[in-house]
Amino acid sequence: MKIYTKTGDKGKTSLIGGRVPKDHLRVEAYGTIDELNAFIGKAASELDPAKFQDILKDLETIQHELFDCGGDLANVMKERKYKLQEASIEALEKRIDALSEELPPLKRFILPGGAPAAATLHIARTVTRRAERQVVKLMNSEEDVPAVVQKYLNRLSDYFFVAARAVNFRLNVKDVEYIRSGDVFR
């Protein structure tokens, strides 16, 4: 099987049910989700399975759910069945709560960084925010987009923030507070 098809050589790409220019908002949104998925793979490669089995399991689940998001965004057929469900958001919320319970309280903004995996999770958080902005832009352009994708991405960025802090905490790496921050978390 050849990996190249040459069908995109003129600047268009296939969706599920149509073709669009490669710079279409829809392609930008699911392309950013693909980029995010690669950063998750990088973060997973930086985690010790002995200390982070739970987070590694989360990351694998998230990678599958991001493929669902990408597929849902790429689907422009009239009759659609979306893969991503609200249950994925509820599961993320439970994991955010569980990870948060093991962390010291946060009062101020923190600088992204710390251990390599934590820094990569912070990158994943910011790429998630960009993907969410692109999905919102797509939704505002009158395109038909499942709202669950935007909501999932919103919650996912929160997960990455908490997961990055959990990685640092388990490795005894202190979060660095932004020095000009007042108390913003209560």
TrEMBL record:
EC number(s) recorded for this UniProt protein: 2.5.1.17
GO biological process, one term: cobalamin biosynthetic process
UniProt pathway annotation: Cofactor biosynthesis; adenosylcobalamin biosynthesis; adenosylcobalamin from cob(II)yrinate a,c-diamide: step 2/7
Keyword ATP-binding: yes
Keywords: ATP-binding, Cobalamin biosynthesis, Coiled coil, Nucleotide-binding, Transferase
Residue span, Cobalamin adenosyltransferase-like domain: 3-166
Highest rank taxon of the organism: Bacteria
Subunit structure: Homotrimer.
Family (UniProt): Belongs to the Cob(I)alamin adenosyltransferase family.
Name of the protein described by the UniProt record: Corrinoid adenosyltransferase
Source organism of this protein record: Ureibacillus terrenus
